[in-house]
Design a protein that fits this description.
Elements lengths: L7 E4 L5 H13 L10 E4 L2 H15 L7 E4 L5 H5 L18 H13 L5 H20 L5 H4 L10 H24 L4 H18 L6 E4 L6 H11 L4 E6 L9 H6 L15 H10 L7 E2 L10 H10 L30 H16 L13 H13 L16 H14 L4 H8 L9 H16 L8 H12 L8 H18 L6 H15 L1
Parallel strand pairs: 1-5, 1-6, 2-3, 2-4, 4-5
Helix pairs in contact: 1-2, 4-5, 4-7, 5-8, 8-9, 13-14, 15-16, 15-20, 17-19, 18-19, 19-20
Length: 515
């Protein structure tokens, strides 16, 4: 009996990927509450897991047990899926991964050993960590970096010095990992994924397996997708692949990569083509996914966008297309003078959509500053924007308190840093206690105006003792006596030199006393 071909599908870009995927799966496996529970769906990241979960909830209309949703791009891959990718009875257990912060500090120590300052070593370690991850994901040996020839006499001598340092670090890093009995996180993911691909080829897992929305062509991920596509109940579903009716063969072939590995890497279809090439699947073998959803735009818009994004060598065809193939109805372009105007226009458009019954809206942008501006503008109209990228700790009250404590100690309790700490909304209690606290802080604020006091708590002691003699600032010494005990511990605990664990402990204890 001939072997069945790979099961690879695509959902056109004008249809909602998550809703179409769910509709098709529910049509295939029925609407019984337990029908989907035996399967698993591989997704690119945690955001996709959340989006697909919401799509299942919308489509179910009642109780539903979801299939296992696995984010194969998740840094904590093994913790997320347990035995699915790292079984307890594995003949070749994969070593644990080094923690990201521990790795960065270890790399910084190696860089500093090559003659860099502490601050520069930390910056270089972060860049080096990203480079090592990128190489590991593509399974390119790091030693190839050291093989770069920098002997051109026209290049500055520091290039050769930097290369020699890089060679030393690349040689020392694997030894450091072996000494710790650990491996890099990206390498661990690669091993887990490749072991899973081999295991599924030898023994297909029970139930259905779907790989959906994954566009990366990383070798380890590709190995898993190749195994899934050939499982008896396996499906690979790609997002927005341009089939022959949208992108002719000559344009598809021109994307590359060529014999030298070069291609139209900036084209939105390039990575999908690279993925299919590595899977050993021709574009003609990919079929359209059957699963309708209400969230869809006209198909003609998808074709118009594809024509607008064609490679430069074929862009002249735009002028020859029929009007229907170029129509972008509903798409608006706005040119604005500055980032503030851009954020305002976007916020107004989002507000208009929210106020229209039955409409939803989303802002998709890599610019975190723009997203923050838009969220702030929406908040003025009492519209809470759900930012799926989250907020860094430094923008939460607890984070700003920790930064304020560190800044006050680092600046020897200079007036601006000290008052910023004492006025923080988490400091001084709440209710009537907060009001009394702020009265004391205002008294200190008045006394600190003018010439800057001597550094440290002793300098502030002398300053407030002198200011207390003046009529305008009388009472500042009593206010300082009430405030001083709360920050006295910071002066002693945060004295340099300070190890990282002691700094963290001092910040924690200082926050507990002040807040």
């Amino acid at each position: 009996m001939p072997e069945a071909g790979p099961s690879v599908f695509t959902i056109p870009s004008h249809r909602s990927f998550a809703d179409s995927l769910v509709a098709g799966l529910m049509a295939r496996h029925g609407r019984e509450p337990m029908a989907l529970a035996a399967g698993r769906i591989l997704l690119p990241n945690n955001r996709a897991v959340r989006t697909l979960t919401e799509a299942f909830v919308r489509a179910s209309g009642g109780g539903l047990v979801l299939p296992r949703l696995i984010a194969i791009g998740d840094p904590e891959l093994d913790d997320r899926v347990g035995g699915a990718l790292d079984p307890a009875d594995s003949a070749e257990p994969v070593p644990p991964a080094i923690e990201p912060l521990a790795r960065e500090l270890a790399l910084a120590a190696l860089v500093r050993g090559q003659g860099e300052s502490a601050a520069e070593a930390l910056r270089t370690a972060a860049d080096l960590a990203r480079t090592l991850d990128a190489l590991a994901i593509e399974e390119v040996p790091a030693e190839r970096l050291a093989a770069i020839a920098v002997d051109d006499p026209e290049l500055a001598a520091h290039w050769q010095v930097s290369l020699e340092r890089l060679k030393a670090i690349i040689r020392l890093w694997p030894e450091e990992l072996r000494r710790r009995g650990l491996i890099d996180l990206a390498e661990r993911r690669n091993r887990l994924l490749r072991a899973t691909a081999r295991r599924w080829q030898d023994k297909p897992p029970p139930g259905f397996t779907v790989a959906a929305g994954i566009t990366t062509a990383a070798p380890a991920v590709t190995a898993v997708l190749a195994a899934v596509a050939r499982l008896p109940e396996g499906l690979v579903i790609l997002p927005g692949l341009a089939l022959a009716d949208v992108m002719p063969e000559e344009e598809w072939d021109a994307l590359g990569p060529d014999s030298d590995g070069r291609g139209e890497a900036a084209h939105p279809q390039y990575h999908l083509k690279l993925l299919l090439d590595r899977l050993g699947i021709a574009r003609g073998e990919v079929r359209l996914w059957v699963g309708k959803s209400l969230a869809a735009s006209p198909a003609v818009r998808g074709r118009a966008v594809a024509n607008a994004m064609t490679a430069a060598d074929f862009s002249d065809k735009w002028s020859r297309l029929p009007a229907a193939e170029r129509r972008l109805t509903g798409i608006r372009a706005v040119e604005l003078a500055d980032p503030a105007a851009e954020a305002t226009a976007i916020a107004l458009a989002l507000r208009e959509s929210v106020e229209t019954p039955g409409q939803t809206a989303a802002l998709v942008t890599p610019d975190r500053a723009l997203a923050a501006r838009v969220s702030a503008l929406l908040a003025r109209w009492e519209i809470a924007a759900d930012d799926s990228a989250g907020r860094p700790l430094s923008q939460w009250p607890a984070g700003t308190l920790l930064l304020a404590i560190a800044a006050a100690a680092a600046e020897d309790f200079a007036p601006v840093a000290l008052l910023a700490l004492l006025k923080h909304p988490l400091v001084g209690g709440d209710g009537e206690r907060r009001g009394a606290w702020l009265d004391q802080v205002r008294t200190l604020d008045l006394a600190l105006r003018g010439p800057r006091p001597a550094p440290g708590l002793d300098g502030l002691d002398r300053h407030f003792a002198e200011k207390n003699k003046e009529k305008a600032t009388r009472g500042c010494l009593a206010a300082w006596d009430a405030v001083r005990p709360l920050i006295a511990g910071l002066d002693m605990a945060l004295q340099p030199p300070l190890a990282l664990d002691r700094l963290a402990a001092a910040l924690r204890e200082g926050a507990a006393v002040l807040a």
